[in-house]
Amino acid sequence: MALIEVRNLTKRWRADRLALDDVSFDLRQGEILGLLGHNGAGKSTILGITLGMVRPDGGQVVIGGHSVQDDRARALGQIGAIYEAAHFYDYLTGWQNLRVLCSLSGWWDEAEAKRVLKLVNLEQRAGHKTKTYSHGMRQRLALAQALLPRPKCLLLDEPTDGLDPEGIREFRELVLKLRAEFGMTILLNSHLLAEVEQMCDRCVILKQGKKMYEGIVPSQQKKQTVFQLQTRDATKAREVIRTAGATQDPTTNLIELPSHIVGHELLQQLVQAGVRVDAWQPHKPTLEEFYLGLTGA
Amino acid sequence: MILFFHQWQGELLKLFARRRTYIGFGAFLGLEIVLLIVFRLQGVERIFERLISRQGQAFGEYYSAITLAQMILGFSVLLLGAIYLALVAGDIVAKEGEDGHYRLLLVRPVTRLRLLFIKYLTSTCYTFVLIQFIAWTAFLLGLAIKGWGGGFFVMIPEAGILEFYQWAEGIERYALASCFLAVSMTTVSSVAFFLSCFPIKPAAATIGALSYILVDLILRNTGFMDNYDHFLLTKHMSAWGRIYAEHIPWPVLVRSFTIIAAANASLFILGTAVFESRDLKS
């Protein structure tokens, strides 16, 4: 079931600059969906429209049955978000910042705020002014504000931007924990392929405002359809592969199987045809290979 | 309603936790002390002595704490007050945009209209607090020098007011006038607030508002606009001084303050429309 439905979004920043071109996708309950694309591909614009900060020229976003464009307050009642870089009120403490932000949601519960601050490991620094916080601490406070009051879904816009490797790992573990423990649905906007690969179930890839792909993160696909063959009988092997209906990339020796045949069956046919097989191994394309192939970068 | 008060409380916390909010209070306290010193100079006292004596009243009685307070208020508030009110109101929407705070505020389930209304209310609240602070610190400083009691002498040449009141009535009139003055000054805040809703720097909103008020004031004082001065906001803003007339001209006050209220409401609505139409993305 889709928690967020993005429907036919179109946005033009200027007459000559199309930011989004009829983009649609769903964010299903309980999944982590990665929104991937180069800088300027339209990722933040989608998030901006989803949060009602940006007005689309066409299309709409529906959250839990409520259109953001028609009933923003009710639609956003179900989500928490980090949108672009989080800039807190430097002259207020972390605690005061949370209080001010939560008041806009019409909610405040000290015990819950303390629990969330503990979760993001900021309970010791909550009483300090945010101008004394490091970038990593600000990001954790940004996550804390997004988690108050308990949203069903998190929208994270490049949340690890500017974090050091430890900070990135800490943040990743925290987000995965949120999904595992609270069943949270998460939309992660990132241009870091490794981040999406490690965290997301599915991804949407954008290029110049157009959706190029929506589906399972390639490296997580359960069905193995690509294999790598090493053989000295290349000509004979090519014939068997062609007969089986599979395709072979001559430069990488990667064989992509059609849907009616599985890996060990083709291997058996190769051996039976007398092809001397030196190596036969499944090949999982990385997200990077997939992304670069798709976007032609 | 409770939700609204929580949200307003948050906005007030943001406003009064900032140091620059207090610049106006500090500056006015300094100005009041300077003006008190000036009004205590022999040469200056002699001018007022002549003015009061010419009306057949005793200078010693009517050059009192409340007279000094009213003079300070009259001399300082329109220009210097306008600067600090425009500074805060010009900041209230534009600075949040410049600092990127809307990325945190507007991901919350709150409408832009409500957010702006809370901000407008906060800016209006600041106007009242600042004007009352000026009025009553001026009075307290006057008390420190002249002590309790005496009469109240008030002179506003442009409104043709030259009146003498007893102490109790003087305080009542002064308190009432300070409230009307605060309402008048919300016009400055409203102009700054309106400009602040555009995607501009906070300083531009402040300077824009002050420029508008100054141009309005200059036009009124040149005399060219005498037949059209009802179109000038500063004309209606100055109506507060009529509280000191022997018989308060309520119809004049009601007319001017209705126009001020209408102007403020229009500026708020237009500002909100501008802000609603904006895409908030870096």
UniProtKB/TrEMBL annotation, chain A:
Coiled-coil intervals: none
Highest classification ranks of the organism: Bacteria, Pseudomonadati, Verrucomicrobiota, Verrucomicrobiia, Verrucomicrobiales
PANTHER family linked to this entry: ABC TRANSPORTER, ATP-BINDING PROTEIN
Recorded family membership: Belongs to the ABC transporter superfamily.
A family per Pfam: ABC_tran
SMART domains xref list: AAA
GO-annotated molecular function: ATP binding; ATP hydrolysis activity
Name of this chain's protein: ABC transporter ATP-binding protein
Alphabetic keyword roster: ATP-binding, Nucleotide-binding, Transport
Keyword ATP-binding in annotation: yes
Naturally occurring in which organism (per UniProt): Brevifollis gellanilyticus
Entry-linked InterPro entries: AAA+_ATPase (IPR003593), ABC_transporter-like_ATP-bd (IPR003439), ABC_transporter-like_CS (IPR017871), P-loop_NTPase (IPR027417)
SUPFAM superfamilies, per the entry: P-loop containing nucleoside triphosphate hydrolases
Chain ranges of the ABC transporter domain: 4-233
Automatic annotation (TrEMBL), chain B:
Keyword Mitochondrion: no
Domain of life, source organism: Bacteria
The protein's name in its UniProt record: ABC transporter permease
Keyword Transmembrane attached: yes
Organism of provenance: Brevifollis gellanilyticus
TM annotation in the entry: 22-41, 62-87, 117-141, 174-195, 202-219, 252-275
PANTHER family: INTEGRAL MEMBRANE PROTEIN-RELATED, MEMBRANE PROTEIN
Alphabetic keyword roster: Membrane, Transmembrane, Transmembrane helix
